[in-house]
């Protein structure tokens, strides 16, 4: 059995998903978000994110962690802030001696929908079907983390 944790980094909302793998069967065990107050100073958000990541790692005891690689084209300040949060997440992962894998949004979209340019709604509907969920996971950041889970599953099939 392998427990996999997937993280979709951000500063105000960080998506996560926990998937259990037994042989070639993947079961979505939990998903959700870490949230920080939007107006909170970045330095304080980073402390909260680090504490919450540490808690999630301790609670679920994952064997592998996958984190989405950063990709931004428009807002440089937002990209830099997310990069700070991502490094706090990576620090908590490395501090726990966990195996780290990273994928770009394009890789995830292509693996799940066969189209690297797929719209978010297409990706979410595919995730809903793949994991046999009754509804699309909300918020979007949690759905993105589940997409990372499936990306890992596709790359590790025996």
What is the structure about, briefly put?
The protein is an alpha/beta fold and 158 residues long. It contains 5 helices and 5 strands, in the order βββαβαβααα.
Describe the structure.
- The chain is of the alpha/beta class.
- It has a single domain, classed as Ribonuclease H-like superfamily/Ribonuclease H (Nucleotidyltransferase, domain 5, 2-Layer Sandwich), CATH 3.30.420.
- Helix content is 47%, strand content 24%.
- It has five helices and five strands.
- Strands 3-2-1-4-5 form a five-stranded mixed β-sheet, with helices on both faces.
- Helix 1 runs parallel beside helix 2, helix 3 crosses helix 5 and helix 4 crosses helix 5.
- The longest helix is centred in the middle third of the chain and has 20 residues.
- The radius of gyration is 15 Å and the shape is globular.
- The protein starts with a strand and ends with a helix.
- The model has no long low-confidence stretch (mean pLDDT 85).
How is the topology of this model organized?
Elements: E1 2-8, E2 13-22, E3 25-35, H1 42-60, E4 64-68, H2 76-95, E5 99-103, H3 105-113, H4 120-130, H5 140-155
Parallel strand pairs: 1-4, 4-5
Antiparallel strand pairs: 1-2, 2-3
